[in-house]
Structure prediction request, 421 residues.
Amino acid sequence: MHLVLKTVLNHVEQLKGFVYESSELISGPPGRIEIRVRARERSRGACSHCQQPAAGYDRLPERRFQFVPLWGIATYFRYAPRRVRCPEHGICVEHLPWALGKRPLTASFAWFLASWAKLLSWQEVSRTFKTSWESVYRSVEMAVDWGRARMDLSGITALGVDEIHWRKGKFLTLVYQINEGMKRLLFVAENREETSLRKFFLWFGAPRTALIRFICSDMWQPYLNVIAERAGEALNILDRYHIASKMNQAIDDVRAKETREIRARSRLSGKQVILTHSRWCLLKRPENLTARQSIKLNELLRCNLRTIRAYLLKEEFQLFWEYVSPAWAAKFMNQWCTKALRSRLEPMQKIARMLRAHQSLILNWFEARGQVSLGAVEGLNNRLKASLRKSYGFRTYGAIKIMLYHKLGALPEPQFAHRFC
Prediction:
């Protein structure tokens, strides 16, 4: 068994200056494989600081380092580290090519855990491979630090800026690259203030910022201020999804208020409130409605309700996105806003005022159409929300940031002789 195992290990985990001396299968539970490592004869240890050969000093007690499981069996390297006398750094422990400082696991096992952490939650990874949650966290942190230090930032011409609510009262500012062929998370900052987005531009640098042609964002004023200040030459496009989201919120507000009024009037008569169970009929696109929702919507359209007036205004605004000419689109928007302001529906009037205040940025959508993937930000946000749901136990900003970079950052990884998963 040892000869076969030694051959496999020399192929996937060759250790310069060390040899695999022996291996032992220890029956369980839990069973494990222990592989003894020794230094090559007449080899000198290397300083752990400068990695230069140094004279031996003494030897420490034997340590155990967890390796990638073999055939589903927990595997460990056993080695007694030497201490060396470095001319520059004095007496220190020798450099171990398989280790990560003082951590009790090998670098290969850390990358193994980090690879699986992209597919499973950190808790599931720790349980599956019989290690601690802390080991998984530190492994992902190592992978993120290594990848962020080596990521390629050249050729970035389109950015997406958004914020997301990740716990009660807590927001994250997110900056994505949304170039065709490369969509990834570039930067995460705490809160959604001007200083949050300024941190990105400080990290990104002025020379790279000057190359940005498009920035897609929502209507959050602190973001608009920083984009105008730091990337004024780029075309700032307001995200179509956020406008649709604001419209849906306005309809929801009108519907909720009218439902309460009708329910109060119907309490004595005992009649069913017609707006009950109608929320998704009004918020979904007509082509996405189920058969039951279509029937419910047809019933509602025959009623003279404020909610239906708001719904019809929302559906009418969808024609705005079908225009080719920005000039004609602007004319349509002005007519729609006038109609909404005369509707006596406060939520829809608020939408009209918002559209007029940001009209020039909204019209930039027509100039960028076909040149940049404008729906990429929402697609990345959906992936991000799925990652947050899987990581519901996280309580610190640091852990959330590392997890998001790891899963959405498209970070580079070192070349191995084999793939983990």
In short: The longest strand covers residues 158-167. The CA atoms of residues 281 and 292 lie 9 Å apart. Residues 240-266 form the longest helix (27 residues). The radius of gyration is 30 Å.
